[in-house]
Amino acid sequence: MLFSSMTFIFMFLPIVGLVYFCLPKTWRNYWLLLASILFYAWGEPAYVLIMLLTILINYVGAILVDKYQKYKKLLLIGTVLVNLGILFYFKYFNFVMQNINALFLSHISFVDVIMPIGISFYTFQAISYVIDVYRGGVQVQKRLSKLALYICLFPQLIAGPIVKYHDIEDQIDNRKETFDKVYYGVQRFIIGLSKKMLIANTLGVVADKIFAQPVTEFGTGIAWLGALAYSLQLFYDFSGYSDMAIGLGSIFGFKFLENFNYPYISKSITEFWRRWHISLSTWFKEYLYIPLGGNRVTKKRNLLNLLIVFLATGIWHGAAWNFVVWGLWHGMFILIEKITGIHKRVSGWLLSLWQHAYTILAFVIGWVMFRSDNMKYAYDYIRNMFGLKGHVVSLYKLGYYIDNIEVITFIVAVLCAIPVFKNMINMGNRSKWYQLGINTWTMCLFVLSASAIAASTYNPFIYFRF
């Protein structure tokens, strides 16, 4: 079920919310768990069994880790490997078999495996729980229903943010639902919905038109238009989902950590990853980078640790070589910044502008790799961006790819990607007229977003495929 669907907004969410607040507190977790399972089963009824199996494996695994201290390291490794094994089979098996056939010119037949939606997210959440128990940072959860709620809570089940167990442990039993939280949650949900429906989907039309064409059929200007449109589409699509998830969590009394913090104002790739998909970055830091030794090792080993983390980041995003290269691309810049120190804050607007320009160039080229169907297309596309494809005759004029509405949306998207409007809002005096204006604007966004949903047929989020 999609957050950006009539079924969710006008049927599922109102019913779940109404029943939730009518129930006594002792029954609310059970109702949320039932609603979350129904939410997931709505689109993929068969694959809900995989999620329930993951929950059971980690429930038993954590209990064994906690009970048998002498063997807890082996039990942890075993539980993590089972999790990764399930993830590997459903997400990477096809990719590995295809590459084996290509490498050895073999014709090994295999069953084409379909990946369950959200498996990367809920698998990482489950792993974080077992590791937290192993480290002694949290108490083992003896109630299966409560662990199940943590792993499959519907606001963040499909595409995050990745909620670590130690960040939410107390909230499972001790959270307080208030009018202010509900109000904030509804407002945050509408903001995320408008990001998705009004900005991401509109710019997605531009990007899809361009990336659907052979590279030989458009010139440098159109290549840059496609790359920038996709960069903005991806940001508003994913941050919009995160806003909706955080808002839904707030409605039911949960506080999820922020997942985005204006990443496109970054002045280095190091800073970019502190602002982009924060929940994934912190997950890899806590559960991979630090266990590898982090920065408490030699300089060479530290650089290797960073490269391993970004290789893993690329692989996590998808079973394709372009994701692997994309991860290494970012890892390469992280290493360069670590070695040279060019990511450190500098004085002077000219150097600061150069840092910002370099960072934009790096992540936009990276998004081309991320968006392309294969590395051959990505390579040719990037060459086209810099005029290295020679003379290219555009099959269509610029007006075919972008109209006036999309131009306006593009400008709004750029302005909203920097904290200018946020700062203006924070400058308000919070009077009743000011609040009335904010509420009116929010309702307008909701009406426009709902109209966009009614006019469309399907609005999947980009990160659903990860």
Instruction: Please state the average pLDDT score.
Output: 90
The main sheet comes to: none
Shape: globular
Question: Residue ranges: pLDDT <50 for 5 or more in a row?
Answer: none
DSSP strand count: 0
User: H/E order of the elements?
Assistant: HHHHHHHHHHHHHHHHHHHH
Give the N-to-C terminal Cα separation.
Answer: 16 Å
Report on the architecture of this protein.
It is a single chain. The longest helix is centred in the N-terminal third of the chain and has 33 residues, at 72-104. The protein has 466 residues and is mainly α. 71% of the residues lie in helices and 0% in strands. The model has no long low-confidence stretch (mean pLDDT 90). It folds into 2 domains: 6-175, no CATH class; 181-267 and 345-465, no CATH class.
Q: What keyword list fits this structure?
A:
about 475 residues; mainly alpha
Topology (elements, then pairings):
Elements: H1 6-22, H2 25-43, H3 48-67, H4 72-104, H5 119-135, H6 144-152, H7 154-157, H8 165-173, H9 179-211, H10 220-251, H11 269-275, H12 278-289, H13 299-317, H14 321-340, H15 349-371, H16 375-385, H17 398-401, H18 404-416, H19 420-426, H20 432-455
Could you give a short description of this structure?
The chain has 466 residues and is mainly alpha-helical. It is built from 20 helices and no strands. Helices cover 71% and strands 0% of the residues.
